[in-house]
Amino acid sequence: MIDPHAPAPPGTPPPWRAPARIPVRQATGRFLVLAGVFVCAACGLVYELELLALAAYLIGDSVTQASVVLSVMVFAMGIGSLAAKRLRRHAAAGFGAVEAALALVGGCSAMALYAVFAWTGDWGGPWADGPRWLMVLFSLAVGLLIGAEIPLLMELIQRVRRQDAGGAVADLFAADYVGALVGGLAFPFLLLPLLGQLTGALLTGALNVVAGGCLVLGLFRRDLTARARRLLLTANVAVLAVLACAAVLVDDFERAARTAVYGRDVRVALQTDVQEIVLTGGTGGRPLDLFIDGRLRVSGRDERRYHEALVHPAMDGAHARVLILGGGDGLAAREVLRHRGVHRVDIVELDPGVVELADRNPALAGLNGHAYDDPRVRVTTADAFRWLRDAPAGAYDVVIADLPDPGITASAKLYSQEFYGLARRALAAGGRLSVHAGPVGSRPRVFWTVETTMRAAGLHTVPHRVCGHGSAFTAGRAPGPARTPHDWGFVLAAPHARPALDAAGHALAPRRTGLPASTLAHPRY
């Protein structure tokens, strides 16, 4: 008589590792498990890319944010893998629960982060740490759940058909990596342009929960107790319901969030292939404001002071041929065209959506003086750095760099020594280069790094500054903290030494020395 309580012979697998009672053949079951791995891997990478994109769009400094998200997520994946060892005894139920939680967290992450950005006003001020910690928490949660998938899937695939560990790992990771490839390509080329960040994340969550639920409740349902089946089915339906409700309400959510960010007088809101563009105001005495990716780029209240300071000092001399890098809003071109003797103005703008808005929107076109109607203005859609590499030498009397702030990682190459070397080559003898270098008072190191980098490229520089309200341009005399809401720093440069800014004001003093130049290989901003 066999004693049921006697210990099992050595080498006998525990009961929970017995072959799974699946309703299909082993080969079909194995294929279905690998298909589930493929889908879940694709969804996991989409969550990761979504967090990276939101961090770069809403917080800025994409290198830092990408490093934080990736490092936290990879660390969490390791912890999740270790934690999942305790769930191997209930691999099917554990995997179903993990996928439901991952679909809910990953699918709703974009809306949660965007909501915090919209309703706290900014990522700075008293809320500076909260949203960043929220991003870290989402990265941690998604990483933990993704890491828990692999041990559980390894257990499930071995229960379908036992094979050597090396072969099982190879099959599992092959499906995982191919799925990651598909998810990585689908995010920028399909989900983001067609559905946007919010709807794309919600749809990914729905696909994730359906794939995980079908695999567990379909293929491994006989390994689950009746109570476990009911709980998993209820959890999956609840997650799908939450994601579906969020998808139905996403348009209303976006409008409410946009109102929280920009106010109630939004004139235009569009998402181009490059960025989000929002135009507000222009009626009822409110100034016309242009926002790019949630950041104020042009304020009709005082943009004229900025563009006068950027353009007019550089126009003191020959200015028949002018190149504007950036400036797709047409406002720098407006100031250039105020000068007699201008024969040609070339604008190199990365985003054609900005140019189209500045040309066709009545309010913005009125603000830029209908600059695009002038036959002397010609527009090229291109990256400014790449375009300068092919620009003819000595072709321009004036080059105006009306570009995003140097502190934004994506624009760091446009403030590099190599970039200024290309701009110097494009200048004719006696030509001038004018650059917006960021605020002097609040970010002096960035400002003086720009000036140092321009000198390293062989340019003679005259830094200057404008701040305060009014319609006339007055340069600042000292680099102390600005007492007004706006503080713009500029650098006027030329291949050969020029006198100080006689008409524009006085050079800033004292100059910061000892700062290294910024290069493509070693950005300093």
From TrEMBL:
It holds the Pfam family Spermine_synth. Belongs to the spermidine/spermine synthase family. Pathway: Amine and polyamine biosynthesis; spermidine biosynthesis; spermidine from putrescine: step 1/1. It comes from the Bacteria. One of its GO terms (molecular function) is spermidine synthase activity. PROSITE patterns: PABS_1, PABS_2. The gene is speE. Catalyzes the irreversible transfer of a propylamine group from the amino donor S-adenosylmethioninamine (decarboxy-AdoMet) to putrescine (1,4-diaminobutane) to yield spermidine. This is Polyamine aminopropyltransferase. The chain crosses the membrane at residues 31-59, 65-84, 96-121, 133-157, 169-192, 198-219, 231-250. The keyword Metal-binding does not apply. The active site is at 402 (proton acceptor). The keyword Transcription regulation does not apply. It is found in: Cell membrane. It catalyses: S-adenosyl 3-(methylsulfanyl)propylamine + putrescine = S-methyl-5'-thioadenosine + spermidine + H(+). S-methyl-5'-thioadenosine binds at residues 275, 349, 383-384. It comes from Streptomyces cinereospinus. The lineage of its organism: Bacteria, Bacillati, Actinomycetota, Actinomycetes, Kitasatosporales. Coiled coil: none annotated.
